């Protein structure tokens, strides 16, 4: 196993919904290793050869690691904020690199073309200037001061608005989006993508949300988010190369891609290369 694979083995990954574990458990895989998620108190995750893995329950999901994480799972303070609806969207299987799934979530420029008349629309296609940084203290990628016109920014939105965004990457296969909350100005809605790497070219994606929305039915919230991601899936499954290129010369970035550039640089710095292509081929 390569160094980059070792670096990612010591990360936390979602492997099941904590509230929806069937009595017989969930059989799945993590980075090519067969595992079973077993209900109980406590929930257990075991490998095919019977080895118990570390487990933590957070954000409605069962998280585990094939290695020994050096720190606890990243914190999302909004998960504990009174009045928020915590929405488990379920799981979508995608035939793409787990790193590609995260990078696509960070891409703003595709909104008008992939999510037409929902998250974007022509002629509002320009991505304005925004700030991107790798925050050294937290060791996370952040994009701030992002703005984009959206015909329907959320299920609760009643008309087009210019939406403020912040993007955060706290782990190689997890990303957090903070966006304007139509129902409560001054607060952020939180939409996350937690990615389970099945192999380097196949992943299970577990979206999760923490929203201020007391009006919309839960099934409508879930269906709205699933619709958005299924629109993304067709794009993700047709990207070439299938692995995420970390070589800066492989794909030509534009201003809209600054977050992706920082994400790739951060992955390379930490040798997070499971699902990545290091050298142009």
UniProtKB/TrEMBL annotation:
Keywords: Oxidoreductase. The keyword Oxidoreductase applies. Gene3D superfamilies: Naphthalene 1,2-dioxygenase Alpha Subunit, Chain A, domain 1. Pfam families: VanA_C. InterPro entries: Cholesterol_7-desaturase (IPR050584), VanA_C_cat (IPR044043). It comes from the Bacteria. Signal peptide: none annotated. Residues 94-269 form the Vanillate O-demethylase oxygenase-like C-terminal catalytic domain. GO terms for molecular function: oxidoreductase activity. The keyword Oxidoreductase applies. This is (2Fe-2S)-binding protein. It comes from Pleomorphomonas diazotrophica.
């Amino acid at each position: 196993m390569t160094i980059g694979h070792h670096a990612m083995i010591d990360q936390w990954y979602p492997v099941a919904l904590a509230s929806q574990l069937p009595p017989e458990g969930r059989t799945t895989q993590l980075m090519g290793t067969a595992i079973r998620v077993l209900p109980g108190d406590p929930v257990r995750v075991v490998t095919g050869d019977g080895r118990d893995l570390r487990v933590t329950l957070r954000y409605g999901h069962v998280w585990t690691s094939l290695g020994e994480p050096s720190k606890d799972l990243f914190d999302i303070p909004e998960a504990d904020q009174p009045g928020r609806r915590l929405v488990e969207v379920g799981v979508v299987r995608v035939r793409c690199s787990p790193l590609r799934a995260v990078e696509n979530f960070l891409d703003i420029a595709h909104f008008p073309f992939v999510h037409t008349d929902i998250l974007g629309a022509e002629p509002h296609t320009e991505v304005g200037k925004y700030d991107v940084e790798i925050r050294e203290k937290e060791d996370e990628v952040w994009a701030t001061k992002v703005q984009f016109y959206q015909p329907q920014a959320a299920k609760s939105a009643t008309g087009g608005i210019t939406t403020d965004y912040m993007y955060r990457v706290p782990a190689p296969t997890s990303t957090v989006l903070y966006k304007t909350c139509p129902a409560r100005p001054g607060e952020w809605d939180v939409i996350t993508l937690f990615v389970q790497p099945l192999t380097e070219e196949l992943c299970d994606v577990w979206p999760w949300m923490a929203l201020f929305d007391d009006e919309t039915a839960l099934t409508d919230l879930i269906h709205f988010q699933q619709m958005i991601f299924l629109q993304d899936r067709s794009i993700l499954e047709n990207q070439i190369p299938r692995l995420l290129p970390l070589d800066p010369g492989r794909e030509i970035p534009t201003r809209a891609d600054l977050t992706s550039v920082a994400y790739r640089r951060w992955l390379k710095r930490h040798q997070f290369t499971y699902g990545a292509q290091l050298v142009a081929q």
